[in-house]
Structures are given as structure tokens and as C-alpha cells.
Amino acid sequence: MLLLLLGIIFLHLAALVLLFVSTIVSVWTTGESTTSDLWTNCSTASGCNPASTGEWIQSVQAVMILSIIFSCLSLFLFFCQLFTLQKGGRFFLTGTFQILASLFVMSGAIIYTVMSPEWVPEGNSFGYSYILAWVAFPLALISGLIYVILRKRE
Amino acid sequence: MLTFLALTSVVLLGIVPEQSQAIAIYTGWERHALVGSDIRLSCSFFSWRWTSEDVTFSWTYRPDGSRDSISIFHYTGGAAYVDNKGPFRDRLEFVGNPGRRDGSILLKNLELNDNGTFTCDAKNPPDIVGRPSSVRLLVFEKVPIQAGVITGAIIGVVLGLLVLIVVIYYLMRFLVARRVFSLSVSKHGKKKKEGSQQRQIKV
């Protein structure tokens, strides 16, 4: 029982950490001498400039931040429900928030993929933060589904 | 002992005014403007000393993507010298007041090539040690949306909906519970009334 609990919490925390790293470090695209991401564009030639103020990149920023908020909220709710739920009850609320967080990450990554030719020059490949965002999405989804299926015992 | 202290303090007080302290220069961080408009780049400084007559202001410009900076403005000895050969000839005007520690310049009729970093360096002898301050100029063809407006709007709307749903949920539960409570009270009250009426009739 304890093992299951630890495993679930570990999965949730892994997804949360990936979300944080992906949003903050965010090396979303890399080239030979430039990196550009959600918040700044850096190049070795002319230093770092703040990111372009297009509508789409702002929406990606908002959606990633929202996914972090929802994932943190679901962790908090999980601990609340762990102690207050009656026996046999399901962690619906926790699972809903976690699934919402995974949906937000998915939509953020999709928007970035579709709109990136607009603000990223050709020849740049996607960086590791972009990949982390795509990895965080199924982790969060699986974690949320486990919460919805799980029943509280003892 | 006392005389020794007095002597050292006098000597120190004599030496300290001769040293120059750091001067702090203030410009904006970033300026946005439309093509064809004018913009005033402000520069002021803070110094512990009175504004001397030899105060100097100088502005240099480094275009975006370039590593070289050129000098476009210099004020010294009471006279302002504006750029007459470089990219800002006939477009630069000095609108500052050196007596009030203001070394602002006015750029007229902005073009898209004017994107870049403007650095202001001021010296107030003997206060000459200071770090020049830079302001970044961004020229747009149409007014863009400020960074973070849409981000904040989306986050605010979603969190607001969340709070609204929670409030509505608790309100519904409260109302339903109150209705159930009032129904049970009225039923209980009716039974009590019938019981007392029967008792009265019996009596």
C-alpha cells in the first residue's frame, strides 16, 4: 500500500519537475549560435533580447504557467483528499486537475509546434525543453488517470 | 591620545573631499516608438557634488546586431555637439538641461533602422567614476501588444473560472442543504401541530 502511494506521488512529482524545467529553463529551439525560447532570444553575436511580443508566444507562456499551477493544485488536493476522503472514495478532484494540467501542456506544445516557423528562423532544431514538455504531457495524463481510477483503502 | 585622534580625523576629512565618488546615471530600460514619430531619450545622473561647469554628457549608438558603437552626441564646456555625419544627422536635437543634470536628446522622424542601444555617459568633475547606462530603442510599424498582456489575461480568465465554479458549487450545496433543512423542519413542525391539536380535541 505504502509502495503504491509512494509510486504515485513520485510520478506526480516527476511530471511537475519536468513542467517546471520546461517552462523556466526553456531551451525550446537551438541553432548553431542562437537559442530561443518562451521568454528570451539569446545569441552569441548580440546577447539576449526579450522574446517577441506576438500573441501566440504569450498564449504558450500562459498555458505552460497554468499547467504548472494546476499540477501543484492537484498535488495539494491529493494530500487533502488522502486524509479527508471516506473509504472507497475516488480521487476525482485530484485526477481532474492533473488531467487538465496535462491538457494545457499538450495545447501549449501544439501551439508552439504549429506557430514556431513564424518567429524562429529556419534551420533551428527544437531544444530539450520542448522535448521535456512533450514528455511531461503523457506523464501527467497517466498520473491523472491513475488518480481517477484509484480507490481509497484502509 | 586625543590629539592623535584629532589630527587623524582632520587629515582624513582633508583627504576625503579630494577623492571622487561614484556617479550614478539613469536612463530608461527600453523605449518603444512608431515609425515616423519622435522620441525623447532621457538621461540624468546622481552625484554627491554640486553640478560643476565642466559637466559632460555623451550619447553613443550601437545598432541591433552590430558590435560597433558610434558617438552621436556630446555636450561639454556649455556647448552641445550633435551628430552631423552619422545616421542621425539633422534628426537629433538636444533638449536637456545640464544645469538640472538632464542630458536628454530628441530623435525625430524615426526609421526602422534606428533599432539599437543608446548609451548615455555623464561626467561631473571631479565625480567621473561611473557606469554608463543604456536604453534600448524598438521601432515598430504598428503598435504591438505589450509583453505579458495576453499571458496575464489567459491566466486570469482560467483561474477566475475556477474560482467561480468552486463558489457556485459550494453555493448550490449550501442552498440545497438549507432547502432540505427547511423541508424537514416544516414536516416536523406539522407533525407537532397535529399532535397538539389531537391532544386539545381529546381534552
UniProtKB/TrEMBL annotation, chain A:
Membrane topology according to the record: Multi-pass membrane protein
A Pfam cross-reference name: PMP22_Claudin
Highest taxon of the lineage: Eukaryota
Keywords, comma-separated and alphabetical: Membrane, Transmembrane, Transmembrane helix
Coiled-coil stretches noted in the UniProt entry, renumbered to this chain: none
Cellular component GO terms, alphabetical: plasma membrane
Subcellular location: Membrane
Annotated TM spans: 60-79, 91-115, 127-150
Chief place where the protein resides: membrane
Family affiliation: Belongs to the PMP-22/EMP/MP20 family.
Protein name from the UniProt record: Peripheral myelin protein 22
Organism: Neolamprologus brichardi (Fairy cichlid)
UniProtKB/TrEMBL annotation, chain B:
Domain Ig-like residue range list: 17-136
Signal sequence bounds: 1-22
UniProt keyword annotations, A-Z: Disulfide bond, Glycoprotein, Immunoglobulin domain, Membrane, Signal, Transmembrane, Transmembrane helix
Domain of life (superkingdom): Eukaryota
GO biological process: myelination
A Pfam family recorded for this sequence: V-set
Subcellular localization(s) per the UniProt record: Membrane
Any one annotated GO CC term: plasma membrane
Main location class: membrane
Membrane protein topology class: Single-pass type I membrane protein
Gene3D superfamilies the record matches: Immunoglobulins
Classification via PROSITE patterns: IG_LIKE (PS50835)
Residue intervals passing through the bilayer: 145-171
Matches recorded under PANTHER family: MYELIN P0 RELATED (PTHR13869), MYELIN PROTEIN P0 (PTHR13869:SF7)
UniProt similarity note: Belongs to the myelin P0 protein family.
Name of this chain's protein: Myelin protein zero
Source organism of this protein record: Neolamprologus brichardi
